[in-house]
Amino acid sequence: MKIILLGPPGAGKGTQAKSISNRYSIPHISTGDIFRKNISENTPLGIEAKKYIDNGQLVPDEVTINMVKDRLQQDDCKNGYLLDGFPRTVSQAESLQGFLKDRDESLDTALLIEVPRDFILERMTGRRVCPSCGASYHVKFNPAVEGKCELCGSEVVQRKDDTEETVQERLDVYERQTQPLIDFYKEKNLLSVVEGTKAINEVFESICDILGSVK
Ligand code: ADP
Ligand code: AMP
């Protein structure tokens, strides 16, 4: 299965991606996680990406597209993958379409997790993440027991770009640059939509219903 997850920052893409990846045995590819790993390792890619991420801006398309193409050519992607946080611009979406076409492949669905803007601030400022495996928690909605990641035991932290000011900027960037992808995939008959305001397990059930019917 080849799935992309769409939705504003804080919609719950990363949270649902972990469960989808387990259920369907496909790798979860989060461009945000790849950038953060590079930042923590101080690689040239990380140093370049940090300039944009800290300000809530998108990393330039060329850098991001090349990084994703490299990742999708790795062995574990042969039987499908789940993209989280990519594409985020029409140009990234077109590159992905070209990449798939060259391989005679296609997406199964672009799954939009729909959450209104007024839910997002509380979700993002209360988010805590595992710096080792990228798992997402929330101080109120999904607390990490004793502040430790339940998957790998690392201490969870707050992301530097989850401050109120940066969140507002990221939401503006989403509306300007990423929202047009909803029509892009609708026109290709690939869009499916799930209501993301319900509890985490209820959203997952709805996602499984959708994925059961697209395959
Ligand atoms: P994204 O990957 O789309 O940016 P996350 O999956 O990291 O979003 O979720 C953002 C925050 O909201 C996290 O703190 C997460 O624990 C919390 N969260 C995710 N889904 C829900 C939900 N359905 N209800 C309440 N909180 C949620
Ligand atoms: P995320 O973890 O998905 O919230 O992404 C964190 C940050 O990484 C974003 O605010 C962007 O700065 C950067 N980023 C992640 N994915 C992309 C992408 N597809 N294109 C450009 N920048 C991205």
UniProtKB/TrEMBL annotation:
Keywords: ATP-binding, Cytoplasm, Kinase, Metal-binding, Nucleotide biosynthesis, Nucleotide-binding, Transferase, Zinc. Its EC number is 2.7.4.3. SUPFAM superfamilies: P-loop containing nucleoside triphosphate hydrolases. InterPro entries: Adenyl_kin_sub, Adenylat/UMP-CMP_kin, Adenylat_kinase_CS, Adenylate_kinase_lid-dom, P-loop_NTPase. ATP binds at residues 10-15, 127, 136-137, 198. It catalyses: AMP + ATP = 2 ADP. The keyword Kinase applies. AMP binds at residues 31, 36, 57-59, 85-88, 92, 159, 170. Pathway: Purine metabolism; AMP biosynthesis via salvage pathway; AMP from ADP: step 1/1. Its main location: cytoplasm. Residues 127-161 form the Adenylate kinase active site lid domain. GO terms for molecular function: AMP kinase activity. Residues 30-59 are annotated as: NMP. It is found in: Cytoplasm. Zn(2+) binds at residues 130, 133, 149, 152. Monomer. Catalyzes the reversible transfer of the terminal phosphate group between ATP and AMP. Plays an important role in cellular energy homeostasis and in adenine nucleotide metabolism. Belongs to the adenylate kinase family. Consists of three domains, a large central CORE domain and two small peripheral domains, NMPbind and LID, which undergo movements during catalysis. The LID domain closes over the site of phosphoryl transfer upon ATP binding. Assembling and dissambling the active center during each catalytic cycle provides an effective means to prevent ATP hydrolysis. Some bacteria have evolved a zinc-coordinating structure that stabilizes the LID domain. This is Adenylate kinase. It comes from Clostridium cibarium.
